[in-house]
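User: Hi! Is it possible to get a structure for several chains at once, not just one? Here's what I have:
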Amino acid sequence: MTQQLVLYPLLLQMFLSIVLMFCWTKISWQRVISIIGSLINVGVSIWLFSYIWENGTQIVQAGNWKPPFGIIFVADTFSATMVLLTAISGLAVSSFSSASVVAARLKFGYFPIFHFLLLGLNGAFLTGDIFNLYVWFEIIIISSFVLITLGGEKAQLEGSVKYFTLNILASMIFLTAIAVLYGLTGSLNMADLAIKIAAIDNRGLVEITAILFLVAFGIKAAVFPLYFWLPDSYHTPPSAIAAIFGGLLTKVGVYALIRVFTLIFVDDLFLENIILIVAVLTLFSGALGALVQNNIRKVFSYLIICHIGYMIAGLGLFTEVAIAGTIFYLIHDIIVKTNLFMVGGLIFRIRGTNSIRDLGGLYADYPKLSLLIAIPLFSLVGIPPLSGFWPKISLVIAGFEAEQWWVVGAIIFASLMTLIVVAKVWAAVIWKDKKELPVRLNFRYFDKLKTIRKLR
Amino acid sequence: MITPMIFLSLVSLYIGFGAEHIQQVSTRVASELIDNNQYIESVLGKEQIIGHEE
Amino acid sequence: MEVLLAIMIGILYAAGIYMILRRSLVKLILGIIILGNGANLLIFLLGRVVKGSPPIIPADSDVFQSVYADPVPQALILTAIVISFGLQSFAIILVKRAYKVVKTDDLDEMNAIDKDS
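Assistant: Yes, the chains can be modeled jointly so their relative placement is included. Here is the combined structure:
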């Protein structure tokens, strides 16, 4: 029963999406199945997590081929944590989208693709084979392409052209990196690679390969010079989709970076310095970008970039305290970013606009709701009892211990900028007096969906 | 529509106030990640590591 | 053979990246396709192009004695080809759709999303 436990989250998601495909037009069934399935998935993930917590790392070999020859799935505590977080935000987004995504989109297979996306995410977290990781990445991006274009509104299509170009480019670079790595070592199993890479004398070639991986995962994780696709595309799809993208898709890139740079390419001062520089620049550019935007969903998109910087900085410091801070930040960030994009969707639903200039008076109209919105916003800054505070303090301590003062400075600066941005959003959206807005249709995109109208 | 937001807010409040549990998890993950021999051992078995060190 | 392949892969990568940097959407897709082919050939090259027999032990012996060709790169290329085929067909449909809606194939004119903030 527990022998194949590692595979259960994968199989469950695949089963769900196939079942959902059979209910293609019956969207009320789809809603129920998706929510119940996500609940079961949370249960399975908790089971997997507690099993691994008790018994240590579990592996499953496909077809009983002994590693390093077969494809294996490895669940260590890190993977299990990520699978659990995916399940939690998957449940939240599943119930959020059954309430907020309109029926016209659901009729075109929203839920089956959504569960395929979760399948890809779980697979990427659990695999122990680098080529298999590439395949899971492709499953993730092809489902995300469908989700981001579903509806075919003008802004959505423009955003998704940028999104798909950069993501395919990242996949190609990833493939190139795998090719070079295979040429160097003749192996694809990550654990085997770790041994063989450590034995190679030509460190220059190893560093080049590592840089290729850094670029490929950096595009996916939206780090400093490679983040431009993110704020251009994440605010275009419906907020439920933006929530799962903002919460999980960039974090897959971060997961892959952490996995590759703690397992395969280790003990390399050059790489650690590059990662630190990239992290600091990411922190600055994300924070400054968020400051000047006026669309709240764009502000949140830039905040994603800014906070990716924290995790990369922890990876670059590479001490135990720093990595612990990174993992804690990852846990906190997935939950809070998913919640934040849902908040954006809710505000759009109430007011019909995303512009900070036009919004206002939310506290006067909905005081309890404003308190609810306050929790993710202020967790983001890290006001002490809330969740953002603890990982930041770990990172700062690690920076002090490693005597990397500029990293500490950048972390504190980005924290301050986040505070300013959040205070600005709070003051403008919640506290400012309400403006009289022209009456506008809430779902203005759907005038473009002619085919869907005919079906109705 | 508000239910999932309440759910996620509760989770993030738990992460904030129950930080010691999360800290336990992340410290353990970090100790596993820093020492990559653990991962290699559990995947390939012990013999491979010994062979590599020789 | 290896040198020839290496030069060809270099040309494919260069051409692909040049095409991706152009503003036209059709050239963008062509660039992605060329780059994908370059990556597939790179796997093929780095899997060592050697003359070898398939790794099958003959019936009258217990061990394999001559040089064998590595079967893994072929499996990798096959997978990568299938995946990139799917992605490219999606990309072509997306570009066609985007052209119909936005009425331009110039990437620089696709900036409606920047205006509505």
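Confidence is low (pLDDT under 50) at residues 50-54 of chain B. The two ends of chain B are 60 Å apart (CA to CA).

User: Great, thank you!
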